[in-house]
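ok so heres the complex, three chains, lmk if somethin looks off
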Amino acid sequence: MSTIEKNAPTLKSKLNKAEIKRQSVLLIIAGLYVIYGIIFYYLPLFGWIMAFQNYKLKDGFFGSEFVGLKWFKFLFEDKTFIRILRNTLAMGVINLVATTVTAIGFAILLSEVRNMMGKKIVQTISYLPHFLSWIVVTSIVRDAFSLKGMINELLLNLKLIKEPISYFMHTKYFWPIVAISNVWKETGWNAIIYLATITAIDPSLYEAAAMDGAGRWQKIKNITLPGIRSTIIILLIMNIGNVINAGFEVQYLLGLGVLKPVSETIDIYVLNYGMANFSLGTAAGIFKTFVSMVLIFLFNFIAKKAGEERLF
Amino acid sequence: MFKKLTKSKMSGWDWAFVICNTIFLVLFCVVTLYPVLNTLAYSFTDGQEAILRNVHLLPKKFTTSAYSKVFGMQGFRRGLIVTVSRTFLASVLSLAANALLAFIISRKNFIFKRGLSLFWVITMYANGGLIPSVILMTKLHLTGTFWVYIIPGLVSAFNILVLRTYMSSLPDSYEESAQLDGAGHLTIFARIISPLCKPVYATVFLFVAVFHWNSWFDAMIYNRLKPQNTTLQYELQKLLSSLTQLNPSADSSGKVTDMTTEIQVRAAATIATMLPIICLYPFLQRYFVTGLTIGGVKE
Amino acid sequence: MKSKKIIALALACTLSVGAFAGCAKKKSDSVTDWTMIAFMAGKELNEGNEIQEELAKKTGVRIKETWNTSQDVASAVGTMIASNDLPDLIDGGNGSKMLAEAGMLVAWDDYLKKDEFKNLKEMFSDKQWELFRQADGHIYWANVFGKTYGEPKSRGHNDEAFWVQVRVLEWAGYPVIETLDEYFDLLDKYAKANPVNADGVEVVPYTALCEGWRYFCIENAPEFLDGYPNDGSVIVNLDDPEHPKIEDYNVTPTAKMYFKKLNEVYNAGIMDPEFATMDYDTYIAKLASGAVLGMCDQNWDFAQINNTFIDKGYDKLGYNYVPLGLVAEKGQTKNQWHAYADVPNVSSGIAVTTKCNDADKAFKFLNQMLDQEIHDLRFWGIKDVDYLVDENGMYYRTPEMRANWQNDAFRAKHVCNYSYLPQWGGTHRDGKNAMKPEDQETEFFATLSEPLKKAFDAYHYTSYGDFLRSEHITELGFWYPMYSHSNDMNSTTEYGAAWLKMGDCKHEWLPKVVTSKDFESDWAAYMAAYAECKPELFLEEMQKELDRRFELGK
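and the predicted structre for the whole thing:
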């Protein structure tokens, strides 16, 4: 039990013998989980030492030369790093907003369908693209947005443009294309969790609202949304911590040469420069963890102030 | 404010909504179905046609050669057995482990509620990188075993938090009455909370199952030289990269009888691995499509 | 209880996995089973592969090859060292140095001294072996590719060139094309006269791939245009034979001329408007459709399209490509597009690891791989089954045998090359045949399509190399190729970081320069961005390495 106590010294004021005794089973089990977590998640963090070394495999963690903050300087002194950080955060935020809004919207619209069969079919279809690899999805996206592709054809037919646009030659189209690809691939999958939560809403609430003459929109606004509110907030906070991981596959596969100024993310940078340089890769990892934690604490704090469900 | 609607009849707005919603969802289906059908078409297309990337909804020069390549590969059977076992075992164990922890954290008056949550939240964003993990697994003698697939990922912060959020939103009344009856924590977890959590359990089960079904990186890292512990996805990965083989003495001309190409096999592999998950889905789906009746609880 | 049933079922599943693992097949004790990893794409053999069993009978060793391409080599090697989980044999690719430094490889030195291992020794000259020596004074690996025994026999050109569809040459009456101007002029004229293929596909006169590591298709032509061999990352200037000098081909006048020409043809609509944004699959699709008249590429990068051509009958229409060895100025004789000399890449090769329980036996096995009988078995197959011998002792194959050897399923159960173990090209030890079937004259001409044959006849050429009109230099400088040094550079060194940044800069700017509406100012901006990457750090290091190798070679 000592592990737990060390972990949360600030909570000591709450402790009293009777409460500990009452919760003893829970505390023992939680303690086992903490031990597990320390072994499998916290012990490997020892590897962070690499970020402050010229890590060489032959010398290991203890024999490698210490170089202080050299690798952090390498990152921050690189002129392109600010650009890369901007790309990462921008795409992270755009994708987060786009996929969250569409997933919630889709879940709500689907939950309004009364035909069971139709509901099941739509949902099954909607989450299928999740299983396609990015290489498959990007090749279709590339075709669709090519000079003679579907999108150009559609816009030409609708007389919205006069000449086909070469979307991948212009940097301004890149972020939207990445967002669209993400929405396309993940909306149905992301909606699963919201659908599951919607089912937990007490049906009597809807009945009561109907009695009061509430319309569809009122029911969505006053019952469904509040019902999934805590899930939305928890997922949102968790995902905000992940905006720094805007990914690399889709950007890597779609962002060739000319698009580099807008497509390169931290992960791609690490892929290019961290090859055989474990120290640099680790330094970038620490930086990402730092950004994530700052964001998490910030938004957790905001949620707390707003009296909402929070992460911890 | 809003007009009062009669509950027995659907208003014009309601009809408009239903129609628009239906049209929208149908369109949505068409758009999301396209890449899947496209992949399906490629998987049945002759390799030399596939290379021209001209296939849309229907295969050209129909052939099943890509599937015979996928199902006929050396490690297919072994990989399938391992993948099915790990998916099943890991999903069940992970769900149990995560649910129990989530239950503990969701107890309103649990002493370390906040500390324990933070402890797991940190694990989502901090990791030491590949090399330290490999060293750890080797020290724990997990490298080269089947258990390296199950044990390290057993508890995951994401799933705990999803489960916890759901559990906290359940009404307290059930639990309180059980407590009055003298039920212990674990009884409450097993008998009261868990049955109410079916939708979210199904969700987490699906997440874990899909993750394990698609895993190949751990097979490569920890069982590189142990073909008996290979996974299906790792075998497919190897099959795909073998098709892009850059033969050091590539023959520039000459009749080739084997016409399968990477694009075609990639499509077949995608379809082949999607199928079992699609089959699993309907069993889980009823838990999160059909509403759960938890009425009757006195608030 | 349902959940109990499920758990019981899962446990049963798992136990069955364990049981399976327990009863791994027992093989006869006389054969040693070893594992091998190469960080390259390759096809795994079926268990009980016929030639593999034959080789096992003769050598007492059976190798299980594993191909590893799903992870970058450095982290793969890193994890293998960290978990001490190594195969018995390994081709560590760019991770070879890491393996040696970590003490995971067995030194070759003692073996190379013994007569027993003379086949291995014979692979390189003493001087060449020195190039493989690492900083700690030992040799740990030997590269197995690009080595010629006796007379060269190869008729292919597996490397880089400006390619042109043979029908274009036929249409123009088989002219000799020397310069970029002539080349693009020819493509343009042909495309104007024949804008659409027989099956309605629109012709693309020229395209260039710029995706990822394959951007060499647009990037390194200036090096060749100036008549230098493929040193990869730099030019080695030999104007003063005593003091060879490293030069940067990215900033030469020829480089500017070449990109200006590309810019001109791009704006004239001769160059594919989608060149800058297509990925490899799209590129291959374009080539395979027969639409592209010309491009610059390495042959191995696009050779796969030949299958489609045969399948669609395009080979009979003259869509197959032949290489052209273009030069910067008309009449320039300095030309080394085609390498007639052997190119040992000293940065990687086959190695024996410390995990191997019997290193002596391993080296004996590697040595045996070069015995003529074993070598024939690996590359020609079993006599009378995979090849026939005529009355003059020449090896040949029937069309059926040829087809078999191109079939994956057949190969997996019958053929065993051990393609990353020591091997020879060139002439068979009998002095008549070729070491490998693809170099055998009869095999080569038997597989040429009609339009290709006509072109070979019209020019009086007997090999693809002839098309390139390269100087017949059979011995390259001892330093060659310099890319064996730049290949394993990484950001842990300043020059390595500079090298990576240069690559990044070119990826971004080359397409911009080519598609520019104002070439001069964009070129200047590119040069400024390039200078910021500090290429001088990289070039200094290359000069150092060149000097070192030059001294070794004296």
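quick notes: Residues 91 and 175 of chain A are 6 Å apart (CA to CA). thats all i got rn
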